[in-house]
Amino acid sequence: MSNMITIGDVPGGGPAQMDLGELLATRLLVQGNSGSGKSHLLRRLLEQSARLVQQAIIDPEGDFVSLAEKFGHLVIDGAEYSEMELHAAGERMRLHRASVVLNLEGLDADQQMKWAAAFLGGMFEVPREYWYPVLVVVDEAQLFAPAAAGEVSDEARRASLGAMTNLMCRGRKRGLAGVIATQRLAKLAKNVAAEASNFLMGRTFLDIDMARAADLLGMERRQAEAFRDLARGTFVALGPALCRRPVSVRIGAVETESRSAGPVLAPFEPPSAPVHDLILAPLTTFEVASRPAKIAAAPPPDLLSSLAAHGEAQQQAAARTEPEQEETPESQQEREARMMAVLREMLESAENTFRPAPVLYQDFLVRCRIAGLGRNALDLKRFNRALATARSGVSEDMSVTPEWQEAQSLAQALPEDVQSVFLCLARAAIARQPCPADAEIARVYGTVSQGRARRVLEWLEDRNIIVLRKDGVERRILTVIGPGWETLPGEA
């Protein structure tokens, strides 16, 4: 079976083909202003590959539901299902190898982000034996992986951005090939866009977007003006699945139609009757009765109550599906030791050193499920404490000492992003080791900047948590205020 599909033609150069097998390994980014033909391109790609690979489409506007009529995609209306149901649907679509269109039309931005994150999370967490290739197309990707915080809640943004980062960064090993389309590269999170190796750049007018598109395609800045002159449906292609040098591609015709086609210009005929009588006529009795009275919006639910109800529902669901088993103190300690082992194994990977905590949390939950520790191994707050402990480098023997328990109690009063640094310093002081160097503190803090590491030390000293001093040869000594733990002299 051939892996090549035809997406259009090169003006004056024959058909433009795409290597589907290479695309599954390298991912694709499509960019173009509104009206440039992005949705048409995605529809052509989906139609040509529908019978070759399983597909999952995150559709915020309901443009792709017509694929179901010709190619048998299952259309899931996001407004009719809960977040947990969509998470399960993401798992089951991979178990049964069914192509799905997730229609998020009619939901507000906050719900769209949460629902998409749940669906992608379910696809990501299936067991290894179901890691079949899936083409995951996300239209309007800037909605789900925004470069900056907007009007949506932080919870929805973190969940959606974490799921999109997983798709583009770690999806390849799980058979997930991300195809993301955006109106503006400047609105898309850089860590999501940077993982694509294939590019189709359409018409764009803003200087910043043209410059970024030219950089991604390896073009000179003076050539970036060419993106303004591209016709609708014409894209500049580059990538291992497309071509080795930038080439203009005119996208071919499609077999299905979008429900949200653009407006069609028609002759304008003014009304024959007087406009005043048509527009401002008094309401009839039937119209008054048929118009619903305006109901005041209900106040938003209390966040703590919602979280408590959600946690209780999850516990009840787990109790219905899992046999009751009394957990002894010994088994609880063993379970926590296994979770810490999973966390330490994660941090041994260099690529996880500088990843944000929400992304690491998603990875941790997946690994715990694979290890048989269940879906809800730790909540996010307990995970952050465990992550700070693991990053500090404490040994298992020291972690059970009274001194370390006191250090953890002191750390709980600090902001979460500083706790790992404090525990690293406390660990060195308790063990009477040399004061950690700036490079080590920066790594524990999750950065490569030693200047930021020094600023964290200054912040801790300004708040009377630690004291820094130097010996006769300018080596740094650190003392923890209160317990009085002190390191040996570190490097100058």
UniProtKB/TrEMBL annotation:
Residues 7-71 form the Helicase HerA central domain. InterPro entries: ATPase_Atu1862_pred (IPR014588), HerA-like (IPR008571), HerA_central (IPR002789), P-loop_NTPase (IPR027417). One of its GO terms (molecular function) is ATP binding. Pfam families: DUF87. Residues 310-335 are annotated as: Disordered. Residues 310-320 have a biased composition (Low complexity). This is ATP-binding protein. Keywords: ATP-binding, Nucleotide-binding. It comes from the Bacteria. It comes from Acetobacter thailandicus. PANTHER family: HELICASE MJ1565-RELATED. CDD domains: TrwB_TraG_TraD_VirD4.
